[in-house]
Amino acid sequence: MSAYAITLGHHRYRFDDLRAVMACASPRRSGDELAGLAAESAEQRMAARMVLADLPLSVFLAEPLIPYETDEVTRLILDSHDAAAFAPVAFMTVGGFRDWLLSYDADTEALSRLAPGLTPEMVAAVSKLMRNQDLVTVAAKTQVVTAFRSTVGLKGRLSSRLQPNHPTDDPTGIAASTLDGLLFGMGDAVIGINPATDSVSACITLLELLDSVRRKFDIPTQSCVLTHVTNTIQAIERGAPVDLVFQSIAGTEAANAGFGVTLAVLKEAREAALALKRGTVGDNVMYFETGQGSALSAGAHHGVDQQTVEVRAYAVARAFKPLLVNTVVGFIGPEYLCDSKQIIRAGLEDNFCGKLLGLPMGVDVCYTNHAEADQDDMDVLMILLGNAGVNFLIGVPGADDIMLNYQSLSYHDILGLRHLLKLKPAPEFEAWLERMGMLDDQGRVPPLDDHSRPMTRLLGAS
User: 375 labelled as ligand-binding?
Assistant: First the structure.
């Protein structure tokens, strides 16, 4: 008889294995339905959650969802598990763990100590038992601080990635978008470009452009060209001014192979970037992006639901001590998150799970034009994430990325959120804005047409 079974009313619900329990316990999403993993009814979903709530957390150490022998991500998760950090919650069930996370005892210090003892599957499991408010509440108590030239993740701060993409990588267009973002106080997490080509030479040109802007205005931030990790290694070998190494990652070995990456390659890249010693206040040199549905689209999910596979990617990120990790929550498309309800839920899950595992989480609050979502929905997710203590958000000119052809947040959206929630940028960047005459007497970035605002050196020198 299946250990994963429960009777509700006159119906007996049975689940074949732990993977089935996890998948059926997930909130509804189109990706799991596409994969044939989703609960067939609300009643079955609730039955799975009740089974899951009564399971001990330790079951995820004893029963890997993807076999240890065939998957290097599973081996990383289990081999790096910190039993001493796990000990305070080792006796708990998944439901008991949820209750503890919402208690006063689970404060910032306790959550920080616990992070190395949690596996992605434990964290994904408990998230499936939580309402959106629970996800916000616990994430807000969790603090993860990283640094390179600026310090990201401090309490009372909200950082931003300035994303000046251009469909032809035109330096003038990128420079204009970068200046636009800086005038809104954006870019303290990173100034990061998604290149239009995979050319290493073009990548180096963009790196040199960003570095020249940073040095000219003495901006305490870091730059990144989001090319493939092997291109960045080549750029380093050719003397390019590389601050952060970027790579998209996923939660299974096979899905990462689809991205053309292994753990060994990531280790090589991190060591190459560290050897440059370009950081001034820290040495977190990696930048990772993830997204629910990437493993399924690669046919590499091993029958595991998309949210759990997503959280497994965070174990990969955690191993390399990144400065930044962000989920591009609505970017892959409605095949995986079909509408605003699913996108909002996924963004809150990803932020919660990443922070609980000890990652500096950011979110690209975004959607594609064929999803059932609009900018009002993105406002809702943005405000929820601001209250949930997200480390950084991504902004593009006018909320419309003209190279990747999707909708994100604008620079002024993030600035407005900072003002609404009384959040500040990274301290080093805030001090730079003040030196440049770009803050008013209340520490806010005022409108450009405010005649009381002094002419900034940034505009004068541009």
Answer: no
For residue 205, give the H/E element and its range.
helix 200-217
If you average pLDDT over residues 98-103, what whole number do you get? 98
Q: Is 289 annotated as a binding residue?
A: yes
Domain with residue 185: its CATH number is 3.20.20.70
276 labelled ligand-binding: no
Nearest residue to 29 via CA among 136, 127, 100: 127
Any known ligand binding at 149? Answer: no
Residue 229 lies in a domain: yes
Q: Is the pLDDT of residue 446 over 90?
A: no
pLDDT of 140 over the 90 cut: yes
Is 364 marked as binding a ligand? yes
Total of domains in the chain: 1
DSSP of 426-460: -HHHHHHHHHTT-S-TTS----TT-TTSPPPHHHH
The reply to whether 171 sits in an annotated binding site is no
165 is in an annotated binding site: no
Please indicate, yes or no, if residue 4 is contained in any of the structural domains: no
Q: What percent of the chain has pLDDT over 70?
A: 97
Q: Report whether 162 belongs to an annotated binding site.
A: yes
pLDDT tens digits for 24-37?
999 999 999 999 99
Q: What share of the chain is helix, strand, coil (3-state, %, to 5)?
A: 45, 15, 40
Q: Look at residue 68 and tell me whether its pLDDT is greater than 70.
A: yes
User: pLDDT tens for residues 278-294?
Assistant: 999 999 999 999 999 99
Q: Is residue 50 part of a domain?
A: no
269 within a domain of the structure (yes/no): yes
- Length of the chain, please? 462
Whole-number mean pLDDT of the chain? 95
- Tell me: is residue 160 an annotated ligand-binding position: no
Residue 163 counted as an annotated binding residue? yes
